[in-house]
Amino acid sequence: MSLPPVLVRDLPVILVLSFEDFQNMQEIVEAARREQLGQQMVGDLLEIAKLTNQPIKQMLLNEKGVFEEAEG
After folding, report:
1. DSSP notation for 13-49
2. Does residue 2 carry a pLDDT above 60?
3. Which of 5, 17, 35, 47 could bridge across to 21 with cysteines, CB 3.0–4.6 Å?
């Protein structure tokens, strides 16, 4: 991702971040990306349920990070 240059008095300015600040920004960006993907997944599941005329099964995330159908 490329950010547009920041200009002050029509001159480009370079922003220098500490590595910690950079990591914090990366975490925020990643969290936003995951949220967006999660919302897209839910929308896709709702669309599939509508098209197939079947309910959405409840899923749980196991300790390995894999979704499994919930019991009961």
Report:
1. E-----HHHHHHHHHHHHHHHHHHHHHHHHHHHHHHH
2. no
3. 17
